């Protein structure tokens, strides 16, 4: 019975550590760029798009903000659909683990 309690404590500690790591991944932001910096994208480490910047030379100035917002929304929609084969958003910390069937 002591072994089972020890395993439960280890599982709880691992779950807490996973939650901390997930929270940290939401705080970390990275930037990618293309076209010599003419297009810049900012994502969290979890892949959520936080920002997009397009150089004015690439488009009409009065459409710039609308286009940037549309690209952010399209990216998020795509990311949500890509989380599972049927397009549903996964729930829980183990949603991304590729586990074999039981």
Major sheet: size, sense and barrel closure? 3 strands, antiparallel
Give the strand content. Answer: 15-25%
Query: Alpha-carbon distance between the termini?
Result: 25 Å
* Shape designation: elongated
Q: What are the segments in which pLDDT stays under 50 over at least 5 consecutive residues?
A: 89-100
The mean pLDDT is 77
The proportion of residues forming helix, as a percent range, comes to 40-55%
Oligomer class: single chain
Radius of gyration: 20 Å
By helix and strand content, what is the structural category?
alpha+beta
Strand elements, count: 3
- Order of helix and strand elements from N to C terminus: HEEEH
Outline the structure in words:
- This protein is an alpha+beta fold.
- The protein is built from two helices and three strands.
- Strands 1-2-3 form a three-stranded antiparallel β-sheet.
- It is elongated and about 70 Å long.
- The C terminus is likely disordered.
Indicate the topology:
Elements: H1 2-27, E1 29-34, E2 39-44, E3 49-54, H2 64-81
Antiparallel strand pairs: 1-2, 2-3
Notable characteristics:
three-stranded antiparallel sheet; 102 residues; alpha+beta
Briefly, what is this?
This protein is an alpha+beta fold and 102 residues long. The protein has helices at 2-27, 64-81, and strands at 29-34, 39-44, 49-54. The two termini are 25 Å apart.
């Amino acid at each position: 019975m002591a072994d089972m309690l020890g395993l439960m404590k280890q599982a709880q500690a691992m779950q807490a550590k996973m939650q901390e790591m997930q929270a940290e991944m939401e705080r970390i932001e990275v930037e990618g760029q293309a076209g010599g910096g003419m297009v810049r994208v900012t994502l969290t480490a979890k892949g959520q798009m936080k920002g997009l910047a397009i150089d004015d030379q690439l488009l009409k100035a009065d459409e710039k903000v609308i286009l940037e917002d549309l690209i952010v929304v399209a990216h998020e929609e795509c990311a949500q659909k890509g989380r599972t084969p049927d397009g549903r958003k996964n729930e829980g910390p183990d949603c991304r683990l590729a586990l074999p069937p039981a």
